[in-house]
Write a structure and sequence with these properties.
There is one protein chain. The protein is an all-alpha fold and 443 residues long. It has two domains: 200 residues, Growth Hormone, Chain: A (Up-down Bundle); 180 residues, MFS general substrate transporter like domains (Growth Hormone, Chain: A, Up-down Bundle), CATH 1.20.1250. Helix content is 76%, strand content 1%. It has a two-stranded antiparallel sheet. α6 packs antiparallel against α7, α14 packs across α15 and α17 packs antiparallel against α18. The longest helix is centred in the middle third of the chain and has 30 residues. The N and C termini lie far apart (49 Å).
Length: 443
């Protein structure tokens, strides 16, 4: 007779597995896909505002392209997480890249037809690439040893650096490649993005085997059935305490929300992730406007933003190492402190471009600390069966909050100035810090 049916792609719980080899294979697949995903996103986004202004006919609508992409990222977070909860990381991540690839084609079609609403729909779908990139950090944590989870997450975040740096430099050739096709050159990078996302999805489909999430569930089920150390208690987290890793039960998004509500550390993690991202996006999107208003040229603005991107990604392994060594809560507080310093420097620069550059670098560094440590703490703090749902919910909150912050930042600057924007962004850090300290002390 046949035994109990296994979910598609999931290894048998009693099957042998070379866990170190699987971890290396998963890390390779995720790193390669992150490099490609970062390349596709940054190549296209470099000219997104220019394309939107051209098709929309006004500078006032130029920012709607990026806003649509952020909204798309948020809206796709929950269905992507639900798909992963049922079918695993491989299906969820490849599906997100497939949606992004279709979005790239829709953007090109909107540009060719000079149809602005169609362009925005394509940009929203294009946001699926960011959904895949963000969810990949959690895939890196699925099979990581609990005391090394933050480093595993940070490795995948760091890989984005390569594509993010290379992308803007090939935007020009990508634009020229569509000459004669009847579409604006500024749409060329989106066509390239479509190809790159298809390659990234194909790599994940081939290399992300066995599926890390399904494998982690099978191992947790085996440990529970065997009465091992995970039974009824889970694995030790980096900050003490234990979390359940047992499988079974409801994996719905409602169960994910319930898991966050039931766990104080998970609430801290969610606040840190959403708060860090909102502060970073709100300040970053208006910094080029402030620099330009104080006489900075395109080259200088690009240099400041490059330093910001380096702060976001290049030092993430350091944040991961610190989160594993001194604890998640400590690094979340370090991130809040860095973001506070960043807003103080940027908000009082008043034309001092060197001070603005330092502020934007620290803004990226603080974001990295909050994202890496918060993501590790979130994974530590909820049961295995609810993790995919919780992680998708966190990305929905993170991107929704940042979308609102980015949309309001322009109004704040127009009415009160860039300094007030930084002050209000810094104020968002107060509840995050108070919640973190309160929960850390109680533990």
């Amino acid at each position: 007779m046949r035994g109990p049916r296994q979910p598609a792609g999931e290894p048998a719980a009693d099957g042998g597995i070379d866990l170190p080899a699987v971890r290396r294979r998963v890390r390779l697949a995720l790193v390669l896909s992150q490099i490609l995903g970062g390349l596709g996103v940054s190549t296209a986004v470099a000219l997104a505002a220019v394309l939107a202004e051209d098709i929309g006919g006004s500078e006032a609508v130029a920012g709607l392209a990026s806003t649509s992409s952020v909204i798309g990222t948020a809206l796709l977070s929950l269905p992507c997480a639900a798909l992963m909860a049922r079918r695993g990381r491989r299906v969820g991540l490849t599906s997100a890249y497939a949606v992004a690839a279709v979005g790239g084609l829709v953007v090109v079609a909107g540009a060719a037809l000079r149809n602005f609403p169609l362009l925005l729909v394509g940009m929203a779908a294009f946001g699926g690439s960011n959904t895949a990139g963000l969810q990949a950090r959690f895939a890196a944590a699925d099979l990581a040893e609990p005391l090394h989870r933050a480093r595993a997450i940070s490795t995948v975040v760091w890989a984005t650096t390569v594509g993010a740096v290379l992308g803007p430099n090939i935007a020009g050739p990508a634009g020229r490649s569509v000459a004669g096709l009847g579409v604006p050159e500024t749409a060329g990078p989106f066509l390239w993005g479509t190809v790159v996302f298809l390659i990234a999805g194909g790599l994940l489909q081939v290399l992300l085997r066995p599926d890390p999430l399904l494998t982690a569930r099978a191992l947790a089920r085996k440990a529970t059935a065997g009465g091992g150390p995970d039974e009824g208690g889970g694995q030790p987290g980096a900050n003490g305490g234990r979390q359940s890793d047992g499988d079974g039960g409801d994996r719905s998004l409602r169960a994910g929300l319930a898991a966050v509500t039931a766990s104080a550390p998970a609430r801290v993690a969610l606040a840190a992730i959403a708060g860090s991202h909102t502060v970073m996006v709100s300040v970053m999107v208006m910094t080029p406007v402030d620099l330009g208003g104080h006489g900075a040229g395109v080259e200088l603005i690009g240099l400041v933003l490059s330093g910001h991107i380096a702060g976001m990604y290049a030092f993430s392994p350091v944040m991961g190492w610190l989160a594993d060594r001194i604890g998640r809560f400590s690094v979340i507080l370090v991130g809040a402190a860095l973001l506070g310093c960043a807003t103080a420097l940027a908000g009082t620069a008043d034309g001092n471009h060197a001070q603005s550059a330092v502020g934007l670098f620290l803004l990226g560094l603080g974001w990295s600390a909050g994202l890496v440590a918060g993501s590790a703490l979130l994974t530590d703090s909820v049961p295995q069966r609810a993790r995919a749902a919780v992680q998708g919910f966190s990305d929905l909150i993170m991107n929704s909050a940042a979308g609102v912050g980015g949309a309001l930042s322009g109004l704040v600057v127009a009415q009160a100035g860039y300094g007030w924007l930084n002050l209000l962004a810094a104020a968002l850090l107060i509840p995050v810090t108070v919640l973190t300290v309160t929960v850390a002390v109680r533990r």
